[in-house]
């Protein structure tokens, strides 16, 4: 479509304005992460947008080094919460992918589990807060509160619908001739699934798993409800980054926020092609 | 781009070995079925049970003995009279009524700007998607910092106003409400943009070219060709945002904790606070159950209507 020069100018102006606005919060946090305490907060005029004397102190502080400027030191470093977020998100992804992929294959090829699609949509519609009360009681009963595996189990169940719908659309798209040929050769159904279908689906499995991982990594509420001390996740831990002496530890919060924000942004851009499919439950493919 | 929306009846082309296949199919779907039972069916039954009692984790009796604290339907009648619950519900709907249309219009506008190629398109597209990939809780901390009285928002305002501005955004009920809305729009406009652009790119080029040759203006082409083609995608995008927005918790709770007062208390924050502070779990179970039933009814109707719309 031919469009005039004035449209092109308008387009760039509009897009660049919106891009700039949408970057401000992220860049502010990134800049804050490298600011020394003197530049954290400011009253009116002396606000610094870019760190005047950039420092890695905030990151060092997070991992236990006491800072002379801050006076305080953390009694618990950020290392454990990072591990908690990683372990629970990775194993949650594993659970979601195993259950979701096999169910998707069962439905896609054998039509079993016909109740699952709607049940999983329903599960997705429910606000986690409204479902979590009995889960909290059950988890306390089963001694799963404040464990990474208890958290991983809930993550796995909560994100399984995404794994299921994503993999179902990938299986539906896959030509069946290859599977049929292997069946004619005398392979069992299970062997075909294991030896032929799954290896062929490797890219689809990888992008679905990354998508599910991003969702798990992004959780706050479930971690808040199910972890109390030893295995609190990153965002839950972040709330504790303030002290009575210095108030909000903005720099430390920003540094940890940056650490938490990087994996999903990088992975999300890497699987950009499949984001639409994942977010719309496979209703829309790009 | 193809549509497979809500296509729950996958055609099954089976010829031989149907019995073995069926057995394998059942085995394959078993883990998922167990997980659904574990997280959905069993907890909901438990929730029904507890919601009929005065049970709280502090009573020292196990949840299975909650029937000793049976209170008939007192929780449900309390709920009817609970102003804080109804105002939280109303506020959640209000947030949705503001956020979803704004995100939709901004996303649609951006999608129109991005629909055909221009230098730098791919790069700017990726950059625009960043906000929705930021962990929502982290976004909450970001906006918490932005809206501090010595923060950058006031700094920008000071620049335009010409004098120092020191508004305490998150301490004023109306301004705090505005601030949490801004954070939601910032984070989720990219999602609308992403989905709507995918739909817009799928509109057949030749139809548009033919219409152009016939002298149809850009606005006419958009209204008569592009929009009707995007109907389903628009419905899906809106549905996703309505569903997700109703659950909103992370960034709101981190920015304001639902306050000042109850100025930004959505339904999820309300339930959380009652669970944590007042510890009357029997009552919370009743609240949550009412929400779940209402959502099930609404979504069942919506899904039915949507699948009819899609199959047309």
TrEMBL record, chain A:
PROSITE patterns from the UniProt entry: ABC_TM1
Bilayer topology term: Multi-pass membrane protein
Subcellular location: Cell membrane
GO biological process: transmembrane transport
Segments forming domain ABC transmembrane type-1: 82-271
Keyword tags: Cell membrane, Membrane, Transmembrane, Transmembrane helix, Transport
Membrane-spanning parts: 12-34, 82-107, 119-142, 148-167, 204-227, 247-271
Listed GO CC annotations: plasma membrane
Family the entry assigns: Belongs to the binding-protein-dependent transport system permease family.
UniProt-recorded name of the protein: Carbohydrate ABC transporter permease
Annotated organism of origin: Pseudohoeflea suaedae
From TrEMBL, chain B:
GO CC, any one term: plasma membrane
Similarity annotation: Belongs to the binding-protein-dependent transport system permease family.
Compartmental location: Cell membrane
PANTHER family: BLR7065 PROTEIN, SPERMIDINE_PUTRESCINE TRANSPORT SYSTEM PERMEASE PROTEIN
CDD domains listed in its UniProt record: TM_PBP2 (cd06261)
UniProt keywords, alphabetically: Cell membrane, Membrane, Transmembrane, Transmembrane helix, Transport
Main location: membrane
Record's protein name: Sugar ABC transporter permease
BP terms from Gene Ontology: transmembrane transport
Superkingdom as given in the UniProt entry: Bacteria
């Amino acid at each position: 479509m031919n469009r005039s020069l004035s449209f092109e100018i308008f387009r760039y102006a509009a897009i660049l304005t919106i891009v700039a606005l949408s970057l401000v919060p992220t860049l502010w946090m990134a800049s804050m992460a490298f600011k020394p305490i003197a530049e954290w907060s400011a009253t009116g005029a002396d606000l610094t947008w870019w760190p005047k004397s950039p420092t890695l102190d905030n990151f060092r502080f997070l991992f236990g080094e006491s800072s002379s400027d801050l006076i305080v030191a953390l009694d618990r470093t950020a290392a454990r919460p990072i591990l908690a977020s990683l372990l629970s998100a990775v194993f949650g992804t594993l659970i979601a992918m195993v259950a979701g992929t096999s169910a998707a294959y069962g439905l896609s090829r054998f039509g079993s589990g016909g109740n699952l699609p709607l049940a999983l949509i329903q599960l997705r519609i429910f606000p986690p807060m409204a479902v979590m009360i009995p889960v909290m009681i059950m988890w306390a009963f089963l001694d799963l509160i404040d464990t990474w595996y208890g958290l991983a189990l809930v993550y796995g169940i909560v994100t399984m619908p995404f794994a299921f719908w994503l993999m179902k659309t990938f299986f539906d798209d896959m030509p069946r001739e290859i599977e049929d040929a292997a069946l004619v050769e005398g392979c069992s159904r299970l062997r075909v699934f294991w030896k032929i279908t799954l290896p062929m689906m490797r890219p689809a499995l990888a992008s679905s798993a990354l998508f599910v991982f991003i969702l798990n990594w992004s959780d706050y509420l479930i971690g808040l409800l199910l972890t109390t001390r030893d295995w609190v996740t990153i965002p839950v831990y972040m709330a504790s980054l303030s002290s009575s002496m210095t108030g909000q530890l903005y720099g430390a919060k920003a540094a940890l926020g940056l650490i938490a924000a990087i994996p999903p942004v990088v992975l999300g851009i890497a699987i950009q092609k499949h984001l639409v499919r994942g977010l719309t439950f496979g209703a829309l493919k790009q | 781009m193809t549509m497979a929306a809500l296509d729950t009846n996958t055609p099954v082309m089976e010829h031989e070995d149907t019995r073995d296949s069926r057995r394998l199919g059942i085995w394959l779907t078993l883990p998922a079925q167990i997980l659904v039972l574990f997280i959905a069916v069993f907890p909901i039954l438990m929730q029904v049970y507890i919601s009929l009692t005065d049970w709280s984790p502090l009573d020292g009796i196990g949840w299975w003995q909650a029937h000793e604290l049976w209170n008939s339907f007192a929780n449900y009648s309390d709920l009817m009279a609970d102003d804080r619950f109804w105002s939280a519900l109303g506020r959640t709907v209000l947030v949705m009524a503001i956020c979803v249309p704004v995100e939709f219009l901004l996303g649609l506008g951006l999608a129109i700007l991005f629909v055909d190629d221009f230098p730098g398109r791919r790069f700017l597209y990726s950059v625009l998607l960043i906000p929705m990939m930021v962990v929502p809780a982290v976004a909450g901390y970001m906006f918490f910092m932005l809206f501090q009285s010595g923060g950058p928002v006031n700094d920008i305002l000071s620049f335009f106003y010409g004098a120092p501005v020191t508004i305490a955004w998150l301490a004023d009920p109306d301004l705090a409400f505005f601030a949490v809305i801004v954070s939601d729009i910032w984070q989720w406009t990219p999602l609308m943009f992403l989905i709507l652009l995918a739909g817009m790119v799928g509109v057949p080029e030749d139809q548009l070219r033919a219409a152009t040759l016939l002298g149809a203006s850009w606005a006419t082409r958009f209204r008569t060709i592009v929009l009707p083609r995007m109907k389903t995608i628009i419905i899906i995008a809106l549905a996703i945002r309505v569903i997700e927005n109703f659950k909103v918790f992370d960034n709101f709770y981190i920015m304001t904790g639902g306050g000042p007062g109850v100025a930004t208390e959505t339904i999820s924050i309300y339930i959380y606070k009652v669970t944590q502070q007042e510890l009357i779990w029997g009552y919370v179970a009743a609240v949550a159950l009412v929400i779940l039933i209402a959502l099930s009814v609404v979504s069942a109707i919506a899904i039915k209507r949507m699948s009819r719309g899609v199959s047309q």
